[in-house]
């Protein structure tokens, strides 16, 4: 059960249930020699019996999560084979001889710049580019013009995306130090993948650099919070090192300590708030070591 897992891992039953819907798990003893797909077959057979139908009545399998027997073919194929569901036929067959078969990937941080800067990219063109590159799902960021910091703006962005995007999508909601009430309004909105906090300033106007304000946000929402982690005070002080037309000066201005000092503070805030967080686009080995020690 989830309670059993919470005794051996840094998690809780409620945390697992809220994010996955999973209450219990099953496993097969290694000594049995059975693949994990056998559990899927047994579950399918029970469902078929309880529904008073036969295998011949099944048109297709909607496959959820299962520890795979192999990376390829997928678990659904294994269940079809072991369960002898011979009537399931694909509508289209593709000859993949000599080709590489890869699963569709998720890109959990995209900037499609709509609304406000569509001369660079928009929701439609960005999603087309994603699909062309093998990306089937994207999470778009809220630092648009205007920043997506109210429920009204969030719903408008969702409506703008409707029937225009060519891949699966969800949007982040932008945090400000004084918009916690708005964050609460979108927590359960379908299409909201989380809350984005800019601890250091970047493209757009979003910024929450005070850690007292950050901890208020951590305590206020059950949504996953993702952080752009840079020390704003250091960014301001070190701005003199940024030289126009010299891209290598960027790494001097926004150096290792600028990121590392911010991430240290975020970890302390997360521990005090008892909140799991996600730190985005880590660019330093020092941060990776720090986060590994504090998982």
Please tell me about this protein's structure.
The chain is of the alpha/beta class and 295 residues long. Helices cover 38% and strands 11% of the residues. The protein has helices spanning 2-8, 13-20, 37-50, 75-82, 123-132, 151-161, 180-186, 211-220, 232-237, 250-253, 256-273, 285-293; strands at residues 105-110, 135-140, 168-174, 192-198, 225-228, 277-279. A six-stranded parallel beta sheet has the order 1-2-3-4-5-6, with helices on one face. β1 (105-110), α5 and β2 form a beta-alpha-beta unit. α11 runs parallel beside α12 (285-293). The protein starts with a helix and ends with a helix.
In short:
The chain contains 12 helices and 6 strands.
Set out the fold topology:
Elements: H1 2-8, H2 13-20, H3 37-50, H4 75-82, E1 105-110, H5 123-132, E2 135-140, H6 151-161, E3 168-174, H7 180-186, E4 192-198, H8 211-220, E5 225-228, H9 232-237, H10 250-253, H11 256-273, E6 277-279, H12 285-293
Parallel strand pairs: 1-2, 2-3, 3-4, 4-5, 5-6
């Amino acid at each position: 059960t989830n309670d059993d897992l919470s005794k051996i891992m840094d998690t809780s039953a409620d945390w697992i249930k809220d994010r996955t819907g999973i209450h219990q798990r099953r496993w097969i003893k290694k000594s049995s020699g059975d693949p994990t797909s056998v559990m899927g077959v047994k579950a399918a057979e029970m469902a078929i019996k309880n529904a008073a139908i036969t295998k011949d009545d099944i048109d297709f399998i909607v496959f959820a999560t299962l520890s795979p027997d192999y990376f390829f073919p997928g678990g659904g194929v294994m269940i079809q084979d072991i369960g002898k569901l011979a009537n399931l036929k694909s509508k289209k067959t593709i000859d993949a001889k000599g080709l590489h078969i890869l699963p569709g990937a998720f890109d959990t941080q995209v900037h499609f710049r709509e609304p406000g800067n569509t001369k660079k990219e928009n929701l439609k063109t960005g999603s087309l580019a994603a699909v062309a590159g093998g990306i089937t799902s994207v999470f778009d960021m809220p630092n648009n013009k205007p920043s997506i910091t109210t429920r009204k703006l969030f719903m408008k962005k969702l409506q703008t995306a409707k029937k225009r995007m060519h891949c699966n999508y969800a949007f982040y909601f932008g945090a400000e130090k004084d918009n916690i009430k708005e964050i609460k309004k979108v927590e359960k909105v379908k299409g909201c993948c989380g809350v984005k906090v800019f601890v250091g300033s970047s493209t757009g106007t979003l910024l929450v650099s005070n850690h007292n304000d950050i901890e208020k946000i951590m305590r206020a929402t059950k949504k996953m919070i993702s952080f752009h982690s840079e020390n704003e005070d250091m960014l301001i002080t070190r701005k003199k090192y940024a030289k126009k037309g010299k891209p290598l000066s960027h790494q001097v201005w926004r150096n290792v300590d600028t990121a590392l000092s911010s991430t240290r503070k975020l970890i302390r805030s997360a521990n005090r708030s008892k909140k799991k967080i996600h730190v985005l686009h880590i660019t330093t080995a020092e941060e990776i070591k720090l986060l590994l020690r504090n998982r």
